[in-house]
From TrEMBL:
<dbReference type="InterPro" id="IPR018634">
    <property type="entry name" value="ChrB_C"/>
</dbReference>
<keyword id="KW-0804">Transcription</keyword>
<dbReference type="InterPro" id="IPR018060">
    <property type="entry name" value="HTH_AraC"/>
</dbReference>
<dbReference type="GO" id="GO:0003700">
    <property type="term" value="F:DNA-binding transcription factor activity"/>
</dbReference>
<dbReference type="Pfam" id="PF09828">
    <property type="entry name" value="ChrB_C"/>
</dbReference>
<dbReference type="InterPro" id="IPR009057">
    <property type="entry name" value="Homeodomain-like_sf"/>
</dbReference>
<keyword id="KW-0238">DNA-binding</keyword>
<feature type="domain" description="HTH araC/xylS-type">
    <location>
        <begin position="175"/>
        <end position="276"/>
    </location>
</feature>
<dbReference type="GO" id="GO:0043565">
    <property type="term" value="F:sequence-specific DNA binding"/>
</dbReference>
<protein>
    <recommendedName>
        <fullName>HTH araC/xylS-type domain-containing protein</fullName>
    </recommendedName>
</protein>
<dbReference type="InterPro" id="IPR020449">
    <property type="entry name" value="Tscrpt_reg_AraC-type_HTH"/>
</dbReference>
<dbReference type="Pfam" id="PF12833">
    <property type="entry name" value="HTH_18"/>
</dbReference>
<keyword id="KW-0805">Transcription regulation</keyword>
């Protein structure tokens, strides 16, 4: 069967052909054309249009076309289901849905930039999703640091940390990390321990394990949430922003998540806290 969609694919228009070929129609042929030509060419070629508005195979609510194909064709493969939030997060700019989503977007955008031929791009995309599928099926729980050489590196890091403890000095990486977090907390809503470890050139496993010792006995996630709640308190006190706007400005995925974390830190909901400010 022929399938047709818009030209210059990046996420859904590469992921969907892979899913179709592997689980729906092994003999599928894919055609990429300019946006305005998709529906006329679909009728002319008797092809199924996908990933454009107004057709069956498209986005629904917050789900992408990849999700719809899984539902439509009753695909229950556990690895495919694991890939779904990664593809959805990359395709809809919701990188909070899966840690791998931002990486998939970066690789896909780079491939599309480097390869002007859509069909060659599709060939590369098939290899990419084959590899991602293998990771999801066989390697999700394998850690990079399980390699003997990297375990040796961790031992070295541990010895280095012990020397720092003996001298009772705050390590240079901790000082630099605190400055980076303070500089980026308002502008970078996707701060991650992995990304910061690359910036510092410190192994992420070491950074994760030692973080709390230099940051108020808090894990990385708890420390970031504390800073964002502090920022939210400041905005509640000094601006007329709505709670939804404050949730967005402080890096929370939605208002309900913001409210829950705010209550954990302050014992009050944001609205109750704001009302208490007016009584002072």
């Amino acid at each position: 069967m022929r399938w047709i969609t818009r030209e210059r694919p990046k996420i859904d228009r590469l992921a969907c052909p892979w899913l179709i070929k592997r689980f729906v129609d092994a003999g599928a042929e894919f055609i990429y054309v300019p946006f305005n030509d998709v529906l006329p060419m679909a009728a002319q070629l008797n092809a199924i249009p996908f990933d454009i508005a107004g057709v069956e195979y498209t986005h629904y609510d917050d789900l992408c076309t990849f999700d719809y194909i899984i539902k439509k064709h009753h695909i229950e493969d556990s690895a495919v289901l694991a890939l779904a939030p990664i593809v959805r997060g990359a395709d809809t700019d919701r990188h909070d849905l899966a840690p791998q989503a931002s990486g998939l977007w970066a690789i896909s955008a780079g491939m599309a930039y480097d390869e002007p031929d859509d069909h060659k791009l599709l060939e590369k995309g098939m290899l990419l999703y084959d590899s991602l599928y293998s990771w999801a099926k066989y390697l999700q729980h394998v850690k990079h640091t399980q390699q003997p050489f990297e375990n040796q590196l961790l031992d070295i890091f541990n010895k280095f940390l012990q020397r720092e403890k003996d001298t009772k000095k705050i390590p240079a990486w901790a000082k630099e990390l605190k400055e980076i977090i303070q500089d980026q907390i308002d502008t970078n809503l996707n701060l991650s321990l992995k990304g910061l470890s690359e910036t510092l050139q410190v192994h992420p496993a070491y950074l994760s394990r030692e973080f709390s010792k230099y940051f108020d006995n808090l894990s990385f996630g708890d420390y970031i949430r504390k800073l964002r709640i502090d920022k939210a308190i400041q905005l509640l006190s000094s601006t007329n922003h709505s709670l939804t706007e404050i949730a967005y400005l402080t890096g929370f995925s939605d208002q309900s998540h913001f409210t829950r974390i705010f209550r954990v830190h302050t014992g009050k909901s944001p609205s109750a806290y704001k009302k208490s400010l007016g009584k002072k």
